[in-house]
Design goal:
The chain contains no helices and 17 strands. It is an all-beta fold. Strands 6, 7, 9, 10 and 11 form a 5-stranded antiparallel β-sheet that branches. Strands 5, 8, 12 and 13 form a 4-stranded mixed β-sheet that branches. A two-stranded antiparallel ribbon has the order 1-4.
Length: 202
């Protein structure tokens, strides 16, 4: 590449990776942000050469989400990546429970596995942890695939019961109930049926 007709100044050179590839954008000299970029000083009637870039491919992350009931892969489970307390990427598992993330920046992340909708499995963080704080960090490296970051989801417990009139014993329908865990953010809610029965699941 060549830039011409540049006025004297200190320039930050940005290299944008081709769309649809796994290469990562960068600034000169192998910097991720403009604030970190090495400036190139240009003066009249001079050519600054060898302002080059070797683009790196982003890290890849792969794994599988299965259930403890039979070990089969769980389709349409959600996998969410966290940088600190903030989520920055998510994906769904394929019909066999596998997932893949690409173009990831190097660093330490955490991974959450959320079960498919309307199942009895309980979400968890890698590696069998119940909270983001306790989650085991996963190290991502450029040009490298990190494999087998998988989740084996447990079937959640249930609470069942019935709500009746304290005097007559008649069932009371449409009573809203909720339960919240003391040590985690787990919660559940339900409404009694026409016979006063309810079931709380995850």
């Amino acid at each position: 590449y060549t830039f011409t007709k540049l006025a004297p100044n200190a320039y930050h050179v940005f290299f944008r990776a081709p769309f649809g590839t796994e290469y990562l954008d960068e600034y000169y000299n192998n910097k991720r942000t403009e604030a970190e970029a090495t400036p190139i000083t240009v003066t009249f009637a001079t050519t600054v050469t060898n302002v080059n870039a070797g683009l790196e491919t982003g890290g890849r992350l792969t794994g599988r989400v299965t259930g403890t009931t039979n070990g089969e892969g769980l389709a349409n489970a959600h996998v969410t990546l966290y940088d600190g307390d903030n989520s920055f990427a998510s994906s769904q598992t394929d019909p066999s429970g596998y997932y893949t993330f690409t173009n990831l920046s190097a660093g330490s992340i955490k991974v959450k596995f959320t079960p498919p909708f309307n199942t009895d499995f309980v979400e968890e963080y890698y590696n069998k942890k119940r909270s983001l704080t306790d989650a085991t960090p996963v190290t991502i490296r450029f040009n490298t695939t990190t494999t087998n970051i998988s989740g084996v989801l447990d079937v959640g417990g249930r609470i069942t019961g019935r709500v009746t009139d304290a005097v007559t014993g008649s069932p009371i329908p449409n009573i809203y109930l909720s339960a919240r865990g003391n040590t985690t953010r787990a919660s559940a809610s339900a409404t009694t049926d026409n016979a006063g029965y309810y079931t709380l699941t995850n």
